[in-house]
Every structure is written in C-alpha cells, then in structure tokens.
Amino acid sequence: MMEINITERPLKAVVLGASSDIGNALCMDWIEKNWAVWGTYRTMSPSVEKLQGQLQDLVQCALDNVDSVDKACEILGQQLKNWDVVVLGPGLQEPIGLFESCDFDEWAHSIEVNFINQLRFLRGILPTKNQEPSENGPTVIFFAGGGVNNAPIRYSAYTVAKVAMVKMVELLAAEMPDVKFVIIGPGWVKTKIHNSVLASKENAGASYGRTIEKFKNNEFVPMDKVVECCNVMIEGDKAALTGRNISVEFDCWSEPQFLSFLNENSNIYKLRRFGNDL
After folding, report:
1. Structure pTM?
2. CA angle (29 as vertex; 69, 12 as ends), nearest 5
3. What residues pair up with 140 in beta bridges, in sequence order?
4. What's residue 273's pLDDT?
C-alpha cells in the first residue's frame, strides 16, 4: 500500500452531492475521522437525513438551477474558510438514447448538470480555499465516466460532459499550481445512477443487459475502495497527481511506486491524441 501522511489537524471538506451514494460514503468516512465536513443535497432522502447533525452544515443545491448553485456558494462562503478538500459527486446519465432521437433541451440540461454548473459551484467557492503552502493540497476531486477510450452510444451528453471534465481538470491544474485537481473514474459502483438505465430498457441498448448482469452477479467495484482511492489522492503528492484521470479499478494507485511512476510519465492518465509518434 502507498504510505500516506497523517495530517496534524482535522481537514475541512465540502461534498457537492452528499445525497449521492459516493458523496454520502465520503461524508461518513470523513466524519468518522473527525473532519469538519459540509455537504449539499438536491432533495432530502433517508441517507441525507442521517447526515443531519453530523455535518457542519447541509445546504440545498440543485445543479440544474444557477440561482440555487450561487446561493449554496454564498452560504458556504459565509461559513467555510480555508477548505482543504472539495468533492464534486453528482452525475446524470439522462437523456439515454441516440443523439438524433434525444430532446435537445434535455441533452443540453445534462451538460449543464454534469459539467458547466459543477464548475460554476467550484468557481464560487475557490476564494475560500486553504492558502497555506502544501505539498498535498488543497485538493479538488471530480468523478469521470466511460468514453475516454471508446465511443459508448446512447449516452452522448453524459459522456461528452465527463470527457470535457477530464480535460478541464488538466487545464485547472496548469492554471492553479497551488491546488491539486484530480478526476477519478470509480468504475461500476453499486449506486442509484444505474436506475436510469434500468428504467430505460427501450433506449439503453446493450448497456441495459450489462447492467442487469452486473446486479445479478453483484459485480461492482466496492464502495470502500472508491473511498480509499479518494483518501490516497488527498494525501498524495500534488506535483505527481494533479491534472490526472485516475481509475479506481485499473490503476495501481495503492502501490508505493505509483507516485514515482507518475512523475516519470507526464502524459499518462491525461486526455491525449493517439498516434502522434507513428
């Protein structure tokens, strides 16, 4: 396992989408570590209710509404100074279907939720980041989806938003060297996001059958592995990790030589055109 540094003080974290399954799991892990954690939610749910009283604050934030995003940033900005970690966890797979068959307004709405308004939220709280010089942070974590290495059909809005975020993470890392930006591909995790596929049998194509098989055989990346990867990214060296797209399932992020491997390969785990050396 990669050795990580134990911080001398409890960290301050903001989880955009504490109501998401991954966001909720991160909140619970960090609360147990006695971190000071703030979270946002779109709609109240039993998992969100469990967090009430344990978080520093729980703020409503609907990513399809710019006024809601701006209001959440205003509230958090008044409470939160010197944050160490921001996680942006929400994801929306709809609309599912071929591009020419999708309602374009729904398609554009998906881009706003999965890309534009997540960046709007980040932009709103960047001024309150921890300003102390550090080898590790502050850290911003996004979540990637499929499509970087292939062309999954029927999910064009979700895919293009996630691919754009992969590049945006690299751009942010170049522009803001004092912050560590990482985007994590969690893989197939057992979360609510799959409900949209299961509810769209006619439009989902082959992914419907794959999703059914995943649930039937319980073939998912364990949630605790996703949480562990996030913690390793937070504690890891900023110079090696920033700007990268890390896969929970396929990358050797838990190995002690991982950071050295990254330092020796400036292009790896970034969005690149293939074939320039031919």
Report:
1. 0.93
2. 50
3. 86, 181
4. 87
